[in-house]
Queue: 3 jobs
Job 1
Amino acid sequence: MNKSSARAFCCGMIVTALGTLINFFAISNAGNEALLFGCLIGWTTSILIYSLSVAYYGIMESRGLDHDKE
């Protein structure tokens, strides 16, 4: 569960930064619009990554295929 949370947080922050910078410099939106867009896609990405990661590890654990090397 901790690995899923960490993965989702890191991916969400990277997507937030990239989305904000691309929206600000390439599309030339105002700063507040670019930041709002970046936060929106970053938050959405982190929720998607977290839910897929938890589902993956849950399915693997229920089948007895535990290969999580920690």
Note: Residues 2-62 form one domain.
Job 2
Amino acid sequence: MKNISVAVIILSFLSGCESTPQTVMPTYRLNSPEVSSVPLAVNISSGVGSISEVNLTESDKVSSENVNDSALFFRASIVAVEGLKIIASGAANHDEVASVTALYQFYGLNADKTVAGNVSQALSLAYVSSSGRGSYGSLTPQVTAEDKSVNWEQDTDIIDVAWILGYRISPELLTYGGPFYQWGKAKVRNALESGSNKLESYSKEEHNGNLLGANLALEYRFNFGLGLTGEVVFSKAKWSDSTITESSFNFKIDYQF
């Protein structure tokens, strides 16, 4: 634990940034309700998606704000059986964000059989995890033995459910969207240290949170498998006493094998 804390202090010197404990909730969706009927069909994608950063605690030494950030993400999916695909996703951010999603199309023609005018519906269930660390307090080049700092680490587990409704405008163009809801728990570990890196106290805390949102996306797919998608998302997240309401634009490029 002491080695971790020392590393956090060194990183704080280099970055010059301090932050109180915060969690992140990814709000980008970009999941089409049309699923291939071919088992083992693979899709890979990458894009830029929005992430809500919500403060869990406050300090009079640090000015912290809830913000809407963005991150580069990568995805891979495979069709397990007709209409059901499993999606694995990871985001490159200062917090580590990863998710696994099961998406089932229960209405409409499948992606490989779709035609203009097709109405599709799907439900998705996802598990999302994130972790991060930071510090705040008297972390300055002139730190003394009397100064104190708090080094924190957090792990968050989130469940995400969504209903997705789609309409195919043309053989190449699909619009889709719908509501989604997330809820979860963040576990925070705090280590209070003196300027001489001496551990003075250690504490744990838990925070419950939720997020409600909706999205609207437009996807264009070329006849050789390449797809481009843009979407707008509106969401409201609440953790403990912190609330963040936001709107964002997300984008991805994918290839269907």
Note: The mean pLDDT is 85.
Job 3
Amino acid sequence: MGLPDSPITNDVLAPLAKYLTGIIMQNAKYIAGLLLLYFSIINISYATAPAEPITIGVIHYPPFYILKKNVQPTGILANIVTQSFINADVQFRFASFPAKRLLHNLDNGHIQFFAGTVDPKSYGTNVIYSQMIIYSVVVQVYGRAGEALPQNIEQLKQKRLGLLAGTTYGKIRGRLSTPDNKNYLTRINSYRSGALMLKKGHIDLFLAYKNSMDLTLIQNPVEGLHSSILQQMPVYFILNKNMPGAKQLMLRLETGFKKFAQQFAQQPTEPQTQDSRLEVQ
């Protein structure tokens, strides 16, 4: 069944359309101003810091995250994150989880932030990454001077290799801990011990994070060693993208990190602290 013919004819519609067009044109600037104000308010609300503290996920992973009971996390990445949040004027709290649970909680929004390497398979699809690299984790292989060093992970196999206790080296340990190779691995308790065992010939090679090993050798020199880079892993800020204003918050944190980098370059100082109690979950 069709609709009845409309009683409104073109003779009526044409003048009405012309009248409404005139009203809109006369008030175009006023309407545009209202729209601009509306969107400005939205942008300002997102640009301001979140009202509730952001929950930052951490794991015990020296030297990047060092966790102690009832003490704010320290370590290379923990300090970078702390300073960046303080500079961005964003309130935060730390929460500690086992690694797999942390990644799951970041994906489902139970925590909102983590600083780590890009790994889509681990983080899921509900995260965004910072545009800038905030740190680069460098894994180096150390050997005795004059001896050739491996150029890749496969060349580490079938060698008496020292690995720091509790360190995964970005999954390198897992690749080396196969049944046919695990007997070649030696547990090392400190960077200093690794350097000395290497020099004395108790192990053939030693894997270490560059920054921490450099500091150890400056404080306690061990002669006759050399090294080469085995792997570099860029680190990013990672946010749950479903939280309100996630992209704008990321911009604030990147600005906070830039300030920290500039301050550190000009005059390295001890990081500031915020009363942010660690919750182990």
Note: Residues 98 and 244 are 26 Å apart (CA to CA).
